[in-house]
Hints:
The protein is mainly α. It folds into two domains: 7-181 and 299-328, Rossmann fold (3-Layer(aba) Sandwich); 205-293, Orthogonal Bundle (Tyrosyl-Transfer RNA Synthetase). It has helices at residues 20-33, 45-48, 55-72, 89-98, 103-107, 110-118, 125-140, 153-169, 215-223, 241-253, 258-264, 270-296, 299-328; strands at 7-12, 38-43, 80-83, 145-147, 178-180. Helix 3 (55-72) crosses helix 12, helix 7 packs across helix 8 (153-169) and helix 9 runs antiparallel to helix 12. The longest helix has 30 residues, at 299-328. Ligand 1 binds next to strand 1, helix 1 and helix 7.
Amino acid sequence: MEVTKKKLYSAVQPTNNLTIGNYLGAIKQWIALQDEYDCTFAIANMHAITVRQDPAALRRKTLELLALYIACGVDPEKCTLYLQSHVPCHAELAWVLNTFTYVGEMERMTQFKDKSAKHADNINMGLMDYPVLMAADILLYQADFVPVGIDQRQHLEITRDIAIRFNNIYSPTFTVPEGLYMKVGAKIGDLLDPTKKMSKSAENANGSIFLTDDRDTVIRKFKRAVTDSGNEVRFDPENKPGVSNLLSIYSIFSDKTIAEAEADFAGKGYGDFKLAVGEAVADKLAPIQAEQTRLLADREYLDKVFASGAEKAYHTARKTLSKVYKKIGFYQL
Ligand code: TYM
């Protein structure tokens, strides 16, 4: 008897260069879960334009991100990989969900407030509506689980609220999704200010490790990472945020537990520790970068992945959208 797999959905915006935070908080989880779940992974280019993008760069980053997903180990044979703008149902469902979402709820979103402060000259409606589009993404595919970093938790909560609200007014229509967060890695800190999240768009690029950074850059950035005035490599996020952040990174990149990672550096100084973290990360990034470059040279293959992904995604999304249209009273042919 075939058991239906639970559904998993996630996405990344094709903006700037991805950091090891994006990799550890999201993509690494996807790879671990792709055999067990029915997975759909998108490239969220419609979210990306809520902040002004250069069109040529956005197109290039889109292909780079698809190549990166595959280079990291996301298998297009097992998962549906597609580009958000290739499936019109996202915009269509977002419009409907807008009418079940309150302006006050959107004004309270932390990311909206942060981005409004950062882009004060362009506080557009899309920026405010961002979480509703994200809810549409997730709900279209009836996702049970959404593997993301902690910074997306508030968006997941509002998605659940909107789904429950709609289900209560009509009848069960949407699966109410749950966020999946890594125990270690759900919030990778900036190397220069570990209490802040490592970000693609950080002002100082030395605080972020980009997946495109070469070995020398990776090692140089880790050497400069802030630690503390002590000398003990111990996991204690409250009192030793810098060291704990580096231990988290090291433990995931070298597939060790935090305790094993601590043991590796017992009696060693911060200099040796930081070098070892840098080397562990650089060792893992090199083959991913080589594979991404190889894939980017094969445009035909990437286009094929996008085309078949869009077809599969559309099929699922359209089913949900028709159900919604029926419930709300849209006359359908
Ligand atoms: P984005 O592109 O900002 O980030 C992609 C993923 O990386 C995670 N992340 C981190 N995890 C750990 N530590 C960090 N320092 C760190 N920085 C980023 C994010 O939590 C995210 O999982 N809104 C989403 C994209 C999106 C989406 C969706 C996600 C659009 N539609 C539907 C899930 C489901 C975003 O901006 O991700």
